[in-house]
Amino acid sequence: MDKTKKHIPLSGLRDDVTSKCLTQQEVLNNAKYTQDGYVKVYGSIVGDIEES
Amino acid sequence: MNNKEYDVIIGLEIHIQCKTESKMLCKCPANYFGKDPNTQTCPICLGLPNTEILLPNRRAVELCILLGLATKCDIANEIAFYRKHYSYPDLPKGYQITQYDRPICSDGEIDVYDEKDKKHTIEIERIHPEEDVAKLIRDKEGNKDYFLIDYNKAGVPLLEIVTKPDIKSAYLAKEYANSIRQLVRYLDISDADMEKGQMRCEPNISLQERGKWKYEDGKILPLGDYSLNPKVEIKNIGSISAVEKAIDFEVNRIISELEKGRRIEQQTRGWNAEKGITEYQRMKEEAEDYNYTPDPDVPLIDITTEDIEKIAKELVELPNEKRTRYVSEFSLSDYDSRVLTADRRVSEYYEKLLKILSKEMPIEKAAKASSNWLTGAVFAISNEKGIDINEDTIPLPSLSYLILEFEKKVLTRNKAEELLKESLEKKKDLKKLIQETIEQSKKSIENLDTIVESVIQENPKAVNDYKNGKNATIGFLVGQVMHKTEGSTDPNKAKLILEEKLNG
Ligand SMILES: [Zn+2]
Questions:
Q1: Which residues does residue B12 pair with via DSSP β-bridges, in sequence order?
Q2: Bridging pattern class, strands A38-42 and B6-17
Q3: ipTM for the predicted complex
Q4: From the centroid of its chain, how far is CA B43?
Q5: What sequence ranges are listed for the domain Asn/Gln amidotransferase (chain B) (predicted)?
Q6: Contact assignment for A6 to B89 by CB distance below 8 Å
Q7: Residue A4 phi/psi, 5° resolution?
Q8: Is B314 among the domain residues?
Q9: Total structural domains in chain B?
Q10: Which of B11, B125, B191, B340 is the most buried (most CB within 10 A)?
């Protein structure tokens, strides 16, 4: 464990509250390809989807 | 073909989505279910350049500690978050915030029961929070592979719960997964609906030759020059029952490979529920394949005894504790206790019903009656009709009234069940239905009384024969009553009234 690192108490973590999100359009504007509201990425990757 | 005997060694990794309002490191809503793709995101969870993450969500850390307390884990007093790096389109930042060598919760345990109801204690190695990844849909356009990405899920807080490799059968693995689901639902940590992806189970399995390995400090170690068979991990398990099916299939597959003298490769396989088989996906990554680095943006977090005591206040009576109490306090069978405690809301409903009934009868009788009605007719009808059992769908005063009138023999079981079904199906007031039925029944008894009188008046010969000892004549008189009521009367009831009048 890094002794020089900053410490905070548990109470110092972020409150569980939500705020506004980007719109779908704003998200898709950053993407090269899109389809039906999804970001589309071309490519073949060996193996299956890593869930987590 | 060889005749070696093998031991099955199973470990289980479970991921649970936390029921928080917001994501782990940003303020996007964590509940994305049913939302259009890419509508629950911000620059942080999209991993856009030059955006700093926020501090971790305190509630997610608290829920992790809560689950740790419920599973008797040690809680660390100082925790660190790490970045787990890998390159895949489901990971917008290129790394996932998780924990590494010192998880919040470690060395826990949970009791599960085998087919013969024997208790097994499953050891939990660690529980830690981390971020979920984006949803990927993989497809092909001619020869071109592509992914469709929805980032709504990216950054939702997950709890990863890892057992030690000490689960000895597919059945126990399923029971363990079921217990974890029950626990997180009891504690309101997650809805843990596997179909919605709120809970995922990934078993890892290895088979070792009997007598050639030992279990020590949560690890499988070889004895002598034996070389251990590697683990196979199974993904894509979509239900609790599939945990057992997938492991059973895989164990048989591995045995048949070993018997053919083949080597088992360390690999990840996917459960194909339709075909009921596991399918090869890829060689399994070792932990070292991921590059873990301490997250420079997240400070170390101190967890004090006061923090833990505060979170412990959220601990409710857990399913296993409740089950033991039902057996000792109410003399219920182990089976009934288990059924009633499987769902926290059902057990709470049960205890409220019991409280009402125990004012009218001894506690043990009330406990048995409440249990019989709930696990019998109420469960059957609610399962058949897909109706939730709660105080809105079946008000407690109504169900307790129904049970009391049944116990007083005012209602037969059939009639009582019929009324319960009618009220649930047609959303009718159960209490009113019962009252109407009792009222009608009183009226028909009054009617019956008049009819019996008229049958006696109209059949003086039969009446005389009966009075002179020809008991069989009562059958003829009952027949007359049945004829006059067009068969709508209970013949036993008619016989009783006739006998009362003729003998009295
Ligand atoms: Zn976000």
A1: B203
A2: unpaired
A3: 0.87
A4: 37
A5: 348-502
A6: no
A7: -85, -10
A8: no
A9: 3
A10: B340
For B469, the domain range is 447-503
Distance from the alpha carbon of residue B22 to the mean position of ligand 1, in angstroms: 8
> Which of B309, B334, B360 is the C-terminal boundary of a domain?
B309
* Same domain (yes/no): B275, B168: yes
Looking at the fold, whether B227 and B138 belong to one and the same domain comes out as: yes
- Residue B31 phi/psi, 5-degree rounding, is -90, 100
Interatomic CA distance for residues A4 and A6, integer angstroms: 7
Closest to B15 measured CA to CA, from B97, B130, B111: B130
Residue B120 to chain A, least CA–CA distance (Å) = 29
What is the CA angle B418-B424-B426, rounded to 5? 95
CA of A19 to the centre of ligand 1 (A): 9
- Residues facing B113 on adjacent strands: B119
User: Which CATH number does the domain housing residue B485 bear?
Assistant: 1.10.10.410
The span from the CA of B160 to the CA of B332, in Å, is 35
Binned average pLDDT, 10 residues per bin, chain B of 504 residues: 84 98 97 96 92 92 98 96 88 90 94 92 97 93 90 97 96 97 96 96 96 92 94 95 97 94 92 95 66 91 97 95 94 93 94 96 95 94 88 92 90 90 88 89 81 90 90 90 79 87 82
**Tens of pLDDT along B460-502?**
999 999 988 888 889 999 999 888 877 777 888 888 888 888 8
* B402 shares a domain with B280: no
Q: Which of A1, A10, A40 sits opposite B146 (nearest CB)?
A: A40
- Are B459 and B415 in a shared domain? no
Neighbour count for residue B217 (Cβ, 10 Å): 6
